Automatic annotation (TrEMBL):
<dbReference type="InterPro" id="IPR002123">
    <property type="entry name" value="Plipid/glycerol_acylTrfase"/>
</dbReference>
<feature type="domain" description="Phospholipid/glycerol acyltransferase">
    <location>
        <begin position="71"/>
        <end position="189"/>
    </location>
</feature>
<keyword id="KW-0472">Membrane</keyword>
<keyword id="KW-0812">Transmembrane</keyword>
<keyword id="KW-1133">Transmembrane helix</keyword>
<dbReference type="Pfam" id="PF01553">
    <property type="entry name" value="Acyltransferase"/>
</dbReference>
<feature type="transmembrane region" description="Helical">
    <location>
        <begin position="6"/>
        <end position="34"/>
    </location>
</feature>
<dbReference type="GO" id="GO:0016746">
    <property type="term" value="F:acyltransferase activity"/>
</dbReference>
<dbReference type="GO" id="GO:0016020">
    <property type="term" value="C:membrane"/>
</dbReference>
<protein>
    <submittedName>
        <fullName>TMM68 protein</fullName>
    </submittedName>
</protein>
Amino acid sequence: VIISLTISAILVFFIVPLSILFFIYLSNILLLIYQRNGEVKGDPLSDVWDSARKTLASFWDIYARIWHGYELHGVENLPEGPGILVYYHGAIPIDYLYFLSRLFLWKKRLCLSVADHFVFRLPGLKLLLEVTGVMPGTREECLIALKNGYLVSVSPGGLREALFSDESYQLVWGNRKGFAQVALEAKVVSIVCY
């Protein structure tokens, strides 16, 4: 009984993160196949990639509903133009991926995501990051994206919040207020997502 409980606990503990990682790499492989078969050479943020984005978003949306019972409320309150979305960074921010998928399916909007530099060092994810609009998020890049009409999302707590926050979901932003300065410079609204 103890051995079966231990094995069950280990499987439950590791199966969710490993399945998410598997599906992320599968998504990148599907984008590579799409790129090669369609000989797509355009800018990864262009409309040429919309059918591939829609396919990926549909897949992640189905996964979100079945595996996590994910629901999204308030999308109708997002501005039609540019804006900054501020969100809480959980240990595995999979709910954010679900949000991006549902946003693309419902509103046909691509939200560019600010990520830490280590994300761009992960092997084999370059095309997925480019097509889904993940960027290093310097102030200049964020301003350009906002001026081009995109929604830009940022988690000020980042990895620190993911690692050191607890089950009460306390924000761990420290002195990270750059997103507010960018919003002021670009004259756009900041929307807090929770």
